[in-house]
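This follows on from our talk about sequence and fold. Go ahead and set the record down below:
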Amino acid sequence: MQLVGLNPQVAFQAKQAENKTDVNATVNTKTAPTPDDSFEKTEHKKTFKEGLGSVAKFFVNMKEMAVGIVKGLLYGGAAAGAIVLGDRAINLKHTMKGGMAASIVGGGIAAFHIIKARLKSNQRTANVDHQLKIGHRDK
C-alpha cells in the first residue's frame, strides 16, 4: 500500500487507483497545516551570557566598521587626490575625465575597505559567540 499525496488536503492509495475502484470513496481529507501552526514564535529570555555577548558584538562591530570607513576615506581620498593632481600636472588644466576617474577609483577603494571591515567584523563577532559558547547560528 503506497500513499500518494500531491495535494496536502487530498490523498489516495495508488493500489486502489490501479484496480480502477472508486477513488472518491477512498479520499482521505486531512486538514492542511495553517501558517500559524508551523511558525510559532517561542519567547526566549536572554541569559546573562547572551546579553554580555550582544554588548561585546556591538562594540566589535562599531570598532571594525569605524576603522574600515576611516581607512576607506583616507586611502580612497589619497588615491583620488593623486589622480587629480597627476592629471592637472600633465594637462595644466582640469579635465572632466580625470575627475571622473578619481571619483571612481576613490569610491572603489573606499568600498573595498568597508566590505573588508564588514567581513572582519563578522569573523570577530563569531569568535565572541564561540568564546562565550552562545552559538551564533542558533537564532
